[in-house]
TrEMBL record:
Belongs to the sulfotransferase 1 family. Gal/GlcNAc/GalNAc subfamily. Residues 35-56 are annotated as: Disordered. Residues 36-46 have a biased composition (Polar residues). This is Sulfotransferase. One of its GO terms (molecular function) is N-acetylglucosamine 6-O-sulfotransferase activity. It holds the Pfam family Sulfotransfer_1. GO terms for cellular component: Golgi membrane.
Length: 443
């Protein structure tokens, strides 16, 4: 029965593509359906089915018409996503749709993700960029133990990200503390790190007496109006979000498969030894145990909680990357792995590669920003400079982390180091010998 219908259906699909006017389609489909009726008798073999099925087997003109309307709509959705798959069909006379990309920069803390996020934040003309919106979600979902329920958090992260990519802030709002009033909040985490949230369109009048902790730096704005932010978002061509909170890439699969989105995942990784060294400085209180071990040149035991945490972090980063590198169908063309060390050494080249991957032109102002931020140390620098020569930063950890700690990291994060091409050091001398690079070049 299906096969019998498929020929006329294919014919109609072609018609649907050629004829955009609904009234023409129903007129033509009405004529054809009438002609066809005598050729499609009820098949006795199918009569085992319920009477309702038999009704379906002799569809009325009206039913056919509505079926074709539905198919036409489906087809529109389908061709939006995969224009190439309709090559065989005649070109559809529809206006060219702007390609809208949804970039998700996935990282962990101290991997240079704020810097890499700027590559997209600086593309002010056509990019709506959000910096760590999931901070609010994590904070709300943090349990008394200090951690989160990974399953519940993963689902909340995914749902919030999906809405934000569609410029809908409502779910995120429910996680902001205190709750926004009339969609206005003075508490959005790091608002100032997102130029989209400090732009003209989103910068409301300054309100005296309202304290905004993360206030815009470039101008004085009132508290953030999320309705205005949403409107600004809808006007931008592309959207980018940076997050250090998603633990498993796999949990974001529904985003990759959502027909409303065209998601590009960029996973940023860094040598776990360097990450640990950096966290011991940045999050000194949390890393007190590590600092003690480093100071005393002790080696913590394998089942110490801190060591287990490190191992679990390394494993989740590696597992995500393994999923991406395996290139399953749902991720094809949607995953890029980037090492911090490569970004630090070749920032412009890597930024250009990222833009090529996303299919968005690499704007000159982004390139100019990168050059300014990576090169300025000597000229404008001194100790007051916030701009670092990022090449120099890459190897600094080798003089900060004692060999004992390095050995522990290599032991628990071994497979992660191997996967990303970070060489093991086998002696104290090798650790501090700068003529030996620890970064393999197979990328
Ligand atoms: C097409 O996509 C829109 C959202 O983009 C959705 O609302 C609509 O139901 C879809 N149509 C069909 C027939 O799947
Ligand atoms: C975590 O959350 C999920 C879903 O919300 C729930 O089914 C599960 O029991 C929770 N697990 C723990 C350990 O609380
Ligand atoms: C927020 O912005 C929207 C749209 O720009 C506007 O209609 C609304 O009045 C603003 N809300 C407040 C409380 O200012
Ligand atoms: C950064 O410093 C290194 C070592 O001092 C130097 O070789 C490199 O050229 C500098 N990079 C830039 C972009 O200036």
């Amino acid at each position: 029965m299906r096969i019998k219908y498929s020929l006329p259906i294919v014919f109609f699909v072609a018609l649907v593509i050629i004829e955009k006017e609904n009234n023409i389609i129903s007129r033509v489909s009405g004529k054809l359906a009438l002609k066809q009726t005598p050729q499609t008798p009820v098949q006795p073999s199918r009569s085992a089915g319920a009477p309702a099925e038999r009704d379906v087997s002799v569809p009325s003109v009206g039913k056919l018409s509505s079926a074709f309307t539905l198919m036409k709509r489906r087809l529109e959705n389908y061709s939006d996503d995969q224009p190439a798959s309709l090559e065989a069909a005649p070109p559809a006379p529809r206006p060219p749709q702007p390609i809208r990309r949804h970039i998700l920069l996935l990282a962990t803390t101290r991997t240079g993700s704020s810097f890499v996020g700027e590559f997209f934040n600086q593309q002010v003309d056509n990019m709506f960029y959000l910096y760590e919106p999931l901070w609010h979600v994590e904070k709300t979902l943090t349990l008394e133990t200090g951690g989160t329920n990974a399953t519940a958090a993963a689902k909340a992260y995914r749902d919030v990200l999906r809405q934000l990519f569609l410029c809908d802030f409502s779910l995120l709002e429910s996680f902001i503390d205190p709750l926004p009033v009339d969609h206005v909040t003075a508490s959005l985490f790091r608002r100032e790190s997102s130029s989209s949230l400090c732009g003209e369109a989103v910068c409301g009048p300054f309100v005296k007496g309202v304290f905004e902790r993360y206030h815009c730096r470039n101008r004085r704005c009132g508290p953030l109006n999320l309705t205005a932010a949403s409107e600004a978002c809808l006007r931008k061509e592309h959207r980018a979000i940076k997050s250090v909170r998603v633990r498993q890439l796999e949990t974001l699969r529904p985003l990759a498969e959502d027909p409303r989105l065209d998601v590009k995942f960029i996973q940023l990784v860094r040598d776990p030894r360097a990450v640990l060294a950096s966290r011991m400085v940045a999050f000194a209180a949390k890393y007190n145990n590590w600092k003690q071990w480093a100071k005393n040149r002790d080696m913590p035991i394998d089942d110490d909680d801190e060591v287990k945490k490190l191992k679990s972090n390394c494993n989740s980063i590696r597992t995500s990357a393994e999923v991406g590198l395996r290139r399953p169908a749902w991720l094809r063309g949607r995953y890029m792995l980037v090492r911090y060390e490569d970004v630090a050494r070749f920032p412009v080249r890597k930024a250009a590669e990222m833009y090529r991957f996303t299919g968005i032109p690499f704007a000159p102002q982004v390139k100019a920003w990168i050059l300014k931020s990576t090169r300025a140390s000597e000229e404008t620098g001194g100790i007051y400079s916030t701009q670092k020569n990022s090449s120099q930063q890459v190897e600094k950890w080798r003089f900060r982390l004692p060999f004992e700690i390095v050995q522990v990291v290599q032991k628990v994060c071994g497979p992660t180091l191997k996967l990303f091409g970070y060489k093991f050091v086998t002696s104290e001398e090798m650790l501090t010998d700068k003529s030996i690079s620890l970064i393999e070049d197979f990328w």
